[in-house]
Amino acid sequence: MAKPVQIEVWNPNGKYRVVSTKPMPGTRWINLLIQQDCRVEICTQNKTILSVEDIIALIGDNCDGVIGQLTEDWGDALFSALSKAGGKAFSNMAVGYNNVDVNAANRYGVAVGNTPGVLTETTAELAATLSVAAARRIVEADEFMRGGLYEGWLPHLFVGNLLKGQTVGVIGAGRIGSAYARMMVEGFKMNLIYYDLYQATRLEKFVTAYGQFLKANGEQPVTWKRASSMDEVLREADVISLHPVLDKTTYHLVNKESLAVMKKEAILVNCSRGPVIDEVALVEHLKANPMFRVGLDVFEDEPYMKPGLADMKNAIVVPHIASASKWTREGMATLAALNVLGKIKGYPIWSNPNSVEAFLDENSPPPAACPSIVNAKAIGLPVSKL
Ligand SMILES: NC(=O)C1=CN([C@@H]2O[C@H](COP(=O)(O)OP(=O)(O)OC[C@H]3O[C@@H](n4cnc5c(N)ncnc54)[C@H](O)[C@@H]3O)[C@@H](O)[C@H]2O)C=CC1
Ligand SMILES: O=C(O)C(=O)CO
């Protein structure tokens, strides 16, 4: 028998019971659910990662939909419990859904939502921040100051890398990878090399146009290249940022062999998912190559780091905060709630999940559609004509 879990209840007489496994930022998401006759139950248990058992207890016997988190293991056990409770809607409050077994959801006819678009720029900004912080050794220098070690300006003190004119490499040039590439190209006048399964046409056009602009103004133009393999990016780039989805094809994409291909003074940034890098191999590489630097937002076994990583001066580590801006986190909560609400109300699916602005406008009611359901086709949900 699962233990009871602490909850906070909004609109107790609402017709539809929607559970959120965590308190989420903002109130718009709660208000939108209440306005549409939902009773909202928010888990307030003081436990960062809920177990499958905790979530089964939250779902109970009667539940229309759940908003969950990327730390939770949404597989057969949870979709079966949700389906038994009458639920047909689940949404991650995240764009990545590698924690969700979508095939299991399909078996139970449960819609699986995610939150694309609203976190693109915020996440890219953190990747850019880590890139610059690693290039200019910001964390080491900050520790040095606070440690009372600064005795005056010196020619060799914390010398780092100049980004201008160097090459930025992007692995996975989707929404976030492309936004990051634009920031690095436009902000620091870096040349771009990228690897993706698909051509990033808009990104290529942007770099071409910016290169022409620079040339017309008497400056060195920036260039772009679509690599035919990931290794080509690793060999040529000075700063490499990882932005693919995590799946079987990207697990340990960066490993001992691929690290060996990279320049000795390269910078590697990961704001995608931890297991994209073989973290044990990375620690060994950092030890053997003190001029190689990394900026990591995600880790292979979150919340843990592999032994030795925390001791490395050439590593900057932050706790999975890439999407953590107020506007973005409130928007993620809104999109996740609207995914669940939309399925409960029988709304169709928004036709372009890359363009979700209409759902985020605080001054007008959201469209009668689910913003982003990843298994819409598999479970036969119609597409909105709005
Ligand atoms: N650290 C954080 O807080 C955050 C992490 N993320 C992660 O970033 C990922 C990407 O998000 P978006 O850009 O919105 O997704 P997206 O779907 O727009 O982009 C992913 C790109 O990866 C490419 N890709 C897939 N397999 C590949 C492979 N084997 N090699 C090279 N490229 C490959 C795809 O073709 C696609 O262009 C999410 O799935 C999530 O895991 C997203 C937001 C915040
Ligand atoms: O959205 C995601 O995939 C995250 O990792 C958190 O923003």
UniProtKB/TrEMBL annotation:
State the similarity comment: Belongs to the D-isomer specific 2-hydroxyacid dehydrogenase family.
Q: Which reaction does it catalyse?
A: (R)-glycerate + NAD(+) = 3-hydroxypyruvate + NADH + H(+)
Q: In which pathway does it act?
A: Photosynthesis; photorespiration; 3-phospho-D-glycerate from glycine: step 3/4
Any one GO CC term of this protein is:
cytosol
Ranges for domain D-isomer specific 2-hydroxyacid dehydrogenase catalytic come to: 35-347
**Family matches, as SUPFAM superfamilies:** Formate/glycerate dehydrogenase catalytic domain-like (SSF52283), NAD(P)-binding Rossmann-fold domains (SSF51735)
Designated gene of the protein: LOC113710402
List the GO molecular function terms: glyoxylate reductase (NADPH) activity; hydroxypyruvate reductase (NADH) activity; NAD binding
Entry's EC annotation:
1.1.1.29
Kindly provide the name given to this protein in its UniProt entry.
glycerate dehydrogenase
